[in-house]
């Protein structure tokens, strides 16, 4: 048994494997749909210092509390705890530095989230109806941040405005670090997926978005000198109204944007990218062993806000470099059209974008606060307090910021 790498025990009532069985090489363990009334005392060997376990699926097995030695799973990459009775996660989860995917869907008693591991890429807390508190910051980003992240809080109706602001502030900071890494690599590689994407219940676009519009599209003129070497991309936000969004494609949803930049000569460049969404099959093929509850269509009947920070500088820079006259051919206007798909090319007609917002994003100067002796947590707390502050006395179509004696075209990260 020492060579066993995959163990599926779905639907069983076993609490503990015999001590004579050694599972030191186990990589995938699934214990979904357990018939144990209370799995709090679950003492299965994979929790006991297994150094190889990478995928752990514990969907719908009546867990009220994770074992104390849970943090010993140092190689864990995917963790599925959906449809359990846990009220919180152990603070030691922060030590699982390899953890990338965390599935908490329908944990209806979960009321708080501690600080999560720094390398986390995908957190899905859909249907956590008791969730009220999220750690500030929800993750502590690395200075050399390179991980793109998605936070899903659909149908988490107890998250108040302050918690939502903190989540967005965390996304802003993480995007800032990702943006700086992008600049340090001289814009190499075309990555149009969101640097960070978040979604939660709501019907308002944060007021710090410089350009806002009712409906699903925005057109705007660009200020002079907007496309400098600090330009990173765009912060995008939409409000989506879900009406009877249920069906075989409801397991996958992608909020997308078609972007078009045009210069004064009438020439243009267009490309599209994703703002966020979900894919309930993203945690791996072994999720299928957890039964139909893992793939149950999401039932959303209220408005939700989607916010993302996207790196779209590469195609714009390439277009300028390929032109004979970079200044003359530099874009002077831009348009953004938002729509939803089922994760393929098929548009979803029942889901409508009712509001949208956009701000161009710029990397901070190296001497800006946040990179010179400032703790990451300080920056998150400061950014959180500013995240939804209204822009007074300024037009939503033209917003500048004076930094270091010059005007910035848009809001820096």
TrEMBL record:
Residues 399-413 have a biased composition (Basic and acidic residues). InterPro entries: C-JID, Leu-rich_rpt, LRR-SigEffector_domain, LRR_dom_sf. Gene3D superfamilies: Ribonuclease Inhibitor. The keyword Repeat applies. Residues 393-413 are annotated as: Disordered. It comes from the Eukaryota. It holds the Pfam family C-JID. Residues 200-365 form the C-JID domain. SUPFAM superfamilies: L domain-like (SSF52058). This is BnaC03g63260D protein. It comes from Brassica napus (Rape). The gene is BnaC03g63260D.
